[in-house]
Amino acid sequence: MLRVNDIHKTYEESPLLEGTSFIVNTDETVCLLGPSGSGKSTLLRIIAGLEQAESGAVLWDEKDLRSVPAYQRNFGLMFQDYALFPHRTVAQNVAFGLRMQKLPTAEVRTRTNQALETIDMLNFAQRRVTDLSGGEQQRVALARALAPNPRLLMLDEPLGALDRALREQLSRELRRILHSTRIPAIYVTHDQDEAFAIADRLLILHNGHIIQSGTPEELYNHPNSLWVARFFGLGNLLEGSVTSHNPLTLQTPLGPFQVACQSDPPPLGKKLTLLLRPSAARICTPEQDMPNMISGVVQDAVFQGESYRLRISCRAGVELSLNVAHNTAVGSQLNLHFPPKTILCLT
Length: 347
Ligand code: ADP
Ligand code: MG
Fold this sequence. Notes:
- This protein has helices spanning 40-48, 90-100, 105-118, 134-146, 164-181, 192-198, 216-221, 226-231; strands at 2-11, 14-24, 29-33, 55-60, 63-64, 75-79, 152-156, 185-189, 201-206, 209-214, 237-244, 248-252, 255-259, 271-275, 282-283, 293-303, 308-313, 319-324, 333-337, 344-346.
- It folds into two domains: 2-229, 3-Layer(aba) Sandwich (Rossmann fold); 235-346, CATH 2.40.50.140.
- By secondary structure, it is α+β, with helices and mostly antiparallel strands.
- The protein is elongated, with a radius of gyration of 25 Å.
- α2 (90-100) runs parallel beside α4.
């Protein structure tokens, strides 16, 4: 098990990592997600032993790795720019790490073939890597990282340079390979879809801290902050301030909103942001007496296969996105309500 404990790292007097802590369990693939510049690559380099932190520790099975140099940590690395040796064959590239370990020739060959089999490229062994597509080169880079049988694999935006369709296909394949090899992995990406496809657990890095961790479902359904909700592109976000408890009610530009009571109700006057999910809206009639009723005029409607995405304009210039089952004509008036238990309060 890997334990990253309270890492601090500063570049040119601006703090980047400010007490970053997390663990990676045996068999687990975690995705480290965060915006560009949040310190993801720096964190991987510190774990790999390629960079020093000012304080904090990296532990493997509770043993501090401070005195273990990078090449003795037995961590595999794979980067976006695959850094394959262009004039060598696929097999020679995959064998590189094994030769560095000075293994006997027969064992190098066996393990190279095993790694190529894992990525389903055994019959490419004698090709030059320059004759391969970008996706194939990335699979070779993965085989090269896997061949020495690392106890941890770290992948830094490995699919970032590929087009969308290939990224989807390769992310499914990566997940299968990571699970079948049972090597714990840290997968860095800024792409949410890729993270959802690969991860057993997500770690969100922001302002030098892991601000939330959990399964993709947990984070998507229960973002613990406004920042995480925005990072996932969740809408609609509506500001309000607490006007009463029991039921917890907030005044917003769209009128009062009731939300399901939280364990620790916020104080009166507290400003919060409500998350009104596009698919949580229920169509109703203006005569009905329900909490959180709003009305709006449909501005546009986009067919999305399973549903329609509507944009409606409401009072006070507020626009909301909705997912509804049936198409609704542009210009028509809609009456809706948001059940209190579907609304999250975020700070
Ligand atoms: P990410 O991988 O999340 O995009 P990085 O870890 O690459 O983030 O870098 C985060 C920030 O740290 C960069 O924007 C840069 O300002 C700074 N940084 C990274 N490496 C160095 C370095 N070697 N020297 C100075 N500043 C650096
Ligand atoms: Mg990076």
